[in-house]
Structure formats: structure tokens, C-alpha cells
Amino acid sequence: MLTRRVIPCLDVRDGRVVKGVRFQGLRDAGDPVEQAARYEAQGADELVILDVSATDEGRATAIRTVEAVRAVLGIPLTVGGGVREVEDARRLLEAGADKVSTNTAAVRRPALLAELAERFGRQCVVLALDAAARLEGGGWEVVVRAGKERTGQDALAWAVEATTLGAGEILLTSWDRDGTGLGYDLPLTSAIAQAVTVPVIASGGAASAAHLAAALHAGADAVLAATIFHDGHTTVGAVKDALAALGLELRR
Amino acid sequence: MRVLVVSTGAANLASVLAGLRRAGAEPGLVSGADALLQAERLVLPGVGAFGAAATSLHAAGLWSALLERLEAGRPTLGICLGLQLWAQGSEESPGVAGLGVLPGLAKRLPDGVRVPQLGWNWVEPGRNCQLLQPGYASYANSYALREAPEGWAAAWTTHGEPFIAAVERGAQLACQFHPELSGPWGQALLTRWLGAR
To answer: CB-CB: which of A94, A96, A169 is closest to B18?
Structure first.
């Protein structure tokens, strides 16, 4: 049986791991290579690196970070940040990524997903979908540019369109919950998981194993978290033990 | 240990090379048909579409050398699409012939489960497997073989329905999963394959 995945996320800027609240206020949290190796040893099922650099120089540094992480990492690696063209994805894959994620660029130009799938296969293409509850009227809308812009576009309709075009997985982040520690947006997670047939990774708001379990019970195939692991309060292994005790199927 | 890896232009090549290095090999890239035939050990990785990969191997002049090598029983490892290319074809690319070393077609994973299958699933080796052992392996596939090939030892995994996780015969091994991404279990398998005769 296919197991549920626990995925630590490293937000990397200029070669260092950082973590912010609601995508802002970044603070330094360590060396990506050292953290990647530690998470694999703890039992992480996969690793996500999001390059949050704002400059070309920062992007070049991110490529070197991916190469250095790949040399030590024996589990799947997804890398996102700045993927606007097939060529950007090729550089990341060549450096050692197994999957690439794209976010704002795909919203602006959905054909990018088809181009990536055509070249590298769907299993390689992750749509990073940032969603927020609509200010009025219910439902969720897509947000882009690290939460700075509300698009008005329906999150569920975009998820379906993106998977039709070429996305083989959805990394779903709740903009309302990210960095708050209030737990994942469960109605959003459940709605997206039911709307698509590709795997869905829940992200944004996790502060405890109970939060991870709730997202998996809501229909997520995998859960992504950053802060709870970075702060050293708990380990991936301890979280997986807690999830297994709740009856969830995990690799251990 | 000299190992050559076939580059089809769209594989997670860096991961495969890093995995082989961690398993103690010194991997290089295949430069042509002669190198492919003479390599002590050969790895055929692959992600992306069946038809595109077959076309790329033909265009590089590697197809018949690959077939010759497999038919001669020379040490070869196929990974993911690299396994499916050993079969007769794939539902993914109707009309495109595979190498035909394994019988049957790669078929799409069933409705009712998440496709692509992304993540870790259990590998159960048949009794006559030498290299393959039970454990969790990392998958990224939408298609898989469903029939046990005669003359090969097979391991199985279930995602909706049972499918071929891997086949082996002597030093020839083909895995639907990614050993290079399957942690210590996968690295141990690579090490055993590097030592297999």
C-alpha cells in the first residue's frame, strides 16, 4: 500500500535556510545540506527546497545548494522558486532535483505546465498552489507573488485545470494559515483532494503531529512542514511514530 | 567500479549519478554505442514519456546496442521508464515498440487511486529473487507492467492492483521504483547489483 508522506521544507535564500511568518519576516535557520541529511536520517520521505531568493545571484546560489544537497540526499527532492521556463526547470533537474514546482509563473502562463510535462513527464511537475479564503462569498481564491496579490481565480478550478495541463502533484499552501501554527486549512485540503486525482501535499500552519494527522485524515496524501522541525522541538521520526499510532500507513 | 549511465536527455540523471557514487561506484556517461556495449556495468535511467525516450535512444544510435547487450545477459540496470523500455511497448505511446526483452505492455495504473503514484510503497520479492529484498521503495510512475515475465525473478507492489516492482536475472535488474531515491534500502540494492554476476 502506498504510504503517506511527511515532507520537511527548507526555504532557502542565498544558500541559507530561512523561515518566515506569512511568507515575510525571514530569519536564518541554518545550513541546507546539514539539515537535509539530518531529515533523511530522521525518516523524512521526501524534501522540498523553496528558493525564496529575489536576485539572479541568489538563484545561482540556489543551484549550488541543490547540487550540494543532492550529493548527500537519497530521497526524492522537489525544488521550486523562479521556475518560469522549461530551461529554468532543466537547470534544477540537472543540478539534482527530481521534481520542480512552479507557482506564479503557471498562473500567469498555464501553458508552462504542459511544456514541462511534455519535456520531463507529469510525475516531475508540481503545481505550488497558494490559496486564501475569499474575503466574501465563500470558497478559496488563488494568490500569487508570495501572497502579495489576490487573483480572484477559483482555487479548485485552477487545481483541476493545472492537472489537466500537466501537473502531476499539487503542493497546496493555505495563505491564511502559513506560519501561524493554527493547523492546516482542512476544508480547503479536503476540497482540493476531492477535486483532483493526482497526489495532494498539504502545507501551511502545522505546529503539531495532530495537525499533520488531521490533514491526512482530510484527504491529503502527504504533509509538508517547516517550522516544527527546524526549531528542534520534535523530529520527523517522532512525528511519524505519532501518526502511525493513529493508524496512518507510513514508511518506518 | 566503472559504471556507465545512458543519458536520454530528460532523466533525473544527477540523482542517479549521486546514488551510484554513494553506493561506491564511479559513474560516467555513455558516449556512444561502442561504449554502451563495452561498459562493465550499464544503467538505463528514465523519466518522461515512453515514446520520447525510445525516439531519443534511436536518434542517438543506441537502440540496437542496448538490445544486443540485454540479450547477451550483460550487467544492466533499468530504472522506472528504463524498466518499461525493456517491455514490448506502453499504453502511454501506442505503436512505439519497446526493446521486447520482457513480455507485455506497460499499462496505466488503475482509476480509483492517485496517479501518478508518488511516494513509498512496499516491495515484496518472489522466492527466487537474489538481489531484491522486502522493503519500502520510492515510486514516481503512472504506468507499470502487470504480467510476471517467464525466465525472470519478479518482485511485486500494489497500488490499486498488483504490478511488477522489479525483475532480475543474474546481473540484469530492472526496477519500476527509484533505488537511487529509496534511502538506505535502495542504496543497499544498488550495492548488491554492483557486485552481482
So the answer is: A96
Q: Which amino acid is at B54?
A: A
Strand duo B105-108 + B89-90: pairing: parallel
CATH code linked to domain A5-245: 3.20.20.70
Residue B195 is predicted with a pLDDT of 95
- Domain ranges (residues) in chain A: 5-245
Confidence band of A21 (pLDDT split at 50, 70, 90)? very low
Q: Which residues of chain A lie closer than 8 angstroms to B114, CB-CB?
A: 2, 197-199, 221
- What does pLDDT average to over chain A? 93
- ipTM confidence: 0.95
Q: How far apart are CA A64 and CA A166, in angstroms?
A: 28
Percent of chain B predicted with pLDDT > 70:
98
Phi, psi values for residue B135, rounded to 5°:
160, 175
Sheet with B26-29: strands ordered across: B26-29, B2-5, B41-44, B76-79, B172-175, B161-169, B153-159, B117-125, B135-141
Residues A7, A44: contact at Cβ < 8 Å?
yes
Domains of chain B: 2-194 (3.40.50.880)
Amino acid at B106: A
Radius of gyration of chain A (CA): 17
Torsion of CA A122, A125, A126, A128, to 10 degrees: -130
Q: Which residues of chain A are within 8 Å of residue B19 when distances are taken between CB atoms?
A: 74
Residue of chain B whose alpha carbon sits nearest to that of A250: B120
φ, ψ (nearest 5 deg) of residue B130: -105, -45
pLDDT in tens, A27-54: 566 899 999 999 999 999 999 999 988 7
Q: Best interface-test mutation with A: which of B15, B108, B139, B141 has the largest number of A CBs within 10 A?
A: B15
